[in-house]
Inverse folding.
């Protein structure tokens, strides 16, 4: 492998021309674009914290923020793939509404009353959830079929879907709200019960740290196997340490947000505990919807980076004709992307229905725009071919931070919309500038 | 070369029309193992369209394709690759946003035992092949859109020879190359020829290919003017075929040959 040896030389030569920051970024291979986004998020958080007189960066607010971001974050991961292939999905908010209705009606009326499943039976929420996910997958696949095999532009198919599924959501109960949800199903939406508590949060955090270490070590082994240039050891250690600090920091925050006193009292009564004078500190820990979103993010990242499907998605986005000439069945890939998007809208429907403890026909209205905004702010190029799952999830967090920050500041809804709209346009403009420079 | 055996590939009476335009009209062409056939003609003569039918990119309206004397069914690029037909397209057909290794293996990725992409193995193989074609090439981590025209061309060529092609189609492969790189491609053609691969070499410029080719086939307005061994015709005669459609005595006339008014 003579050429790998010569390959390292120009790299090193280039590195010596850069300053310390450049060398640091090159050694750690940190994506500058991602760094910019994290920087923007930190600025927004500090700004909102300052403006709200110290209300924003509190465990309570951050915990709520994480729960509120979950459903958009889940859908944004799918929207990345849709936009990467130069398509769009305007129907996800309506699919969310329709599927939420189906999950609600199934567990509240149809399954208990018509199928005779007992209220306490776990079959109730499991069947409702699976049926909803199945329907969302089919809706997505159907729309994907129209786009891929009938060559109807995605904009039109999903614009139609936006109206159709919203109408269908009304149709399920003639517009009536369905409530309350099954108690087990509600855990999907978070709340004191729907969080995993301090102990398990630490377990999850430590497991995540271990996973980071394994991933870094494995990457190093792979590079050594083929004698590719390696990252310096200090850079590996730095990256691992940074990731662990962030993970454990997030767990620490989630574990410093206690249950409200009223719920603690009820819990103590039910479990025959005595509440001491100072009150009993029971931490929320990580909320289940957040765990779901993180799991979705990991699976989607794996799918895009490590599988044939993901490789083809990006190749199609870069040059659809070249992908077809390389023998890729581009229509089938496209159909799968839309089916996946539908399924993720179903997951988001479960989260938001469980969180609201009700299914309404207006649920998810405008969510398609927030989802698209999250993906685009997160670095997904509308010209196709570029985007990351992590970026889109960060974008969802950023959008939600702005929104709940403004609620905290008491800003009226119309002004909130104006700010969110303006931020989206400015973010895309900055991205355009960045891409021109790169 | 044994011309009595069945040709490696034979296209018979191929026609295709786009709207009203007959891009290829009753064209026939064949190729033997270890042979280089130059497909010549002006821009718009139908050369790229004809070979895109062979590579599965277009569906023909009429005609048959035979591989090793047996009728082949080629409906898409995957089918063509199964017959060992590899193509370097005039447009290169690279996925601009992914790196060289991803392009080389696009559609035929190396997988780990766990069913995931083995990027390290693909990069290692890519370094090996690119090292042979273009030893100075080092930009393996960058999307191919950032590469120079010549580097992109090497990626497209490397992709075509990576998978044991038996029939290689090169559509204007030196269009983006300087004189030195062009000489490298000529060398590569000679080497592949020695390995027994049949090569269709397409060009609009006769000087690029005359010395490399065993035979020339000239197209004009979608039709074959004629086919000739390069030993039986002069460059000027071939130019006459390209420009005027006039078939010299040393060539076998095709349906596109100019008929002299009697
Ligand atoms: N996809 C297509 N759609 C419509 N017309 C086409 C298409 N491809 C080629 N043509 C037409 O077919 C003719 C032959 O083109 P082409 O095969 O590219 O010529 P060459 O490669 O010999 O320069 C031209 O008139 C061209 O405009
Ligand atoms: Mg051409």
């Amino acid at each position: 492998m003579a050429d790998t040896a010569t390959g390292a030389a120009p790299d090193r030569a280039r590195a010596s021309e850069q300053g310390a920051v450049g060398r640091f970024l090159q050694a750690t291979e940190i994506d500058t674009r991602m760094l910019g986004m994290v920087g923007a998020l930190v600025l927004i958080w500090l700004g909102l914290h300052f403006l709200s007189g110290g209300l924003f960066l509190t465990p309570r607010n951050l915990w709520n923020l994480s729960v509120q971001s979950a459903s958009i974050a889940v859908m944004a991961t799918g929207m990345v793939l849709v936009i990467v292939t130069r398509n769009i999905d305007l129907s996800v908010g309506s699919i969310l509404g329709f599927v939420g209705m189906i999950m609600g009606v199934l567990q509240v009326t149809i399954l208990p009353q018509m199928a005779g499943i007992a209220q306490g039976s776990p079959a109730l929420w499991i069947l409702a959830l699976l049926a909803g996910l199945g329907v969302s997958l089919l809706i997505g696949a159907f729309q994907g079929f129209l786009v891929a095999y009938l060559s109807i532009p995605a904009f039109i198919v999903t614009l139609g879907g936006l109206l159709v599924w919203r109408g269908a959501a009304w149709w399920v109960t003639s517009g009536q709200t369905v409530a309350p949800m099954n108690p087990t199903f509600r855990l999907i939406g978070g709340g004191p019960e729907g969080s995993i508590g301090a102990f398990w949060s630490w377990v999850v955090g430590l497991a995540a740290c271990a996973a980071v270490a394994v991933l870094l070590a494995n990457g190093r082994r792979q590079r050594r196997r083929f004698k590719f240039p390696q990252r310096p050891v200090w850079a590996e250690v730095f990256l691992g340490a940074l990731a662990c600090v962030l993970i454990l920091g997030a767990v620490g925050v989630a574990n410093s947000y206690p249950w409200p006193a009223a719920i603690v009292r009820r819990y103590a009564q039910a479990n025959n505990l005595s509440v001491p004078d100072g009150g009993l500190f029971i931490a929320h820990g990580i909320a289940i919807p957040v765990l779901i979103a993180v799991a979705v993010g990991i699976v989607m990242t794996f799918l895009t980076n490590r599988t044939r499907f993901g490789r083809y998605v990006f190749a199609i986005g870069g040059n659809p004709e070249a992908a077809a000439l390389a023998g890729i069945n581009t229509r089938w890939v496209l159909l799968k992307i839309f089916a996946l998007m539908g399924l993720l809208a179903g997951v988001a429907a479960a989260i938001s229905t469980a969180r609201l403890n009700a299914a309404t026909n207006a649920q998810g209205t405008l969510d398609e725009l927030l989802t698209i905004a999250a993906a685009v702010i997160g670095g997904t190029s509308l010209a196709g071919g570029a985007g990351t799952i992590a970026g889109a999830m960060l974008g969802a967090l950023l959008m939600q931070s702005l929104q709940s920050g403004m609620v905290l500041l008491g800003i009226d809804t119309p002004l909130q919309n104006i700010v969110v709209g303006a931020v989206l346009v400015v973010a895309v403009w900055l991205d355009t500038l960045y891409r021109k420079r790169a | 070369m044994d011309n009595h055996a069945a040709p490696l590939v034979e296209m018979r009476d191929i026609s295709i029309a786009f709207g009203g335009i007959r891009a290829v009209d009753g064209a026939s062409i064949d190729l033997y193992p270890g042979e280089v056939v130059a497909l010549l003609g002006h821009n718009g003569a139908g050369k790229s369209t004809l070979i895109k039918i062979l590579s599965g990119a277009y569906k023909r309206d009429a005609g048959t394709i035979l591989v090793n004397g047996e009728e082949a069914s080629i409906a898409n690029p995957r089918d063509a690759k199964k017959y060992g037909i590899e193509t370097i397209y005039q447009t290169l057909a690279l996925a601009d946003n992914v790196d060289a290794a991803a392009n080389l293996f696009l559609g035929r990725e190396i997988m780990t035992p766990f069913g995931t992409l083995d990027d390290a193995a693909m990069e290692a193989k890519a370094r090996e092949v690119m090292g042979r074609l273009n030893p100075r090439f080092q930009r393996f981590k960058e999307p191919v859109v950032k590469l120079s025209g010549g580097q992109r061309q090497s990626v497209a060529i490397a992709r075509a020879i990576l998978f044991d092609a038996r029939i290689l189609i090169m559509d204007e492969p030196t269009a983006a190359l300087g004189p030195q790189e062009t000489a490298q491609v000529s060398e590569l053609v000679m080497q592949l020829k020695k390995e027994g691969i049949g090569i269709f070499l397409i060009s609009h410029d006769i000087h690029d290919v005359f010395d490399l080719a065993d035979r020339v086939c000239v197209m004009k307005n979608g039709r074959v003017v004629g086919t000739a061994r390069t030993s039986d015709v002069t460059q000027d005669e071939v130019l006459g075929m390209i420009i005027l459609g006039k078939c010299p005595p040393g060539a076998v006339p095709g349906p596109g040959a100019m008929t002299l008014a009697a």
Q: What stands out?
A: Chain A is about 75% helix and 0% strand. Chain A touches chain B at residues 1-4, 6-7, 10, 222-223, 225-226, 228, 302, 305-308, 311, 314-319, 321-329, 385-386 (CB under 8 Å). Residues 196-286 of chain A form one domain. Residues 1-15 of chain A have pLDDT under 50 and may be disordered.
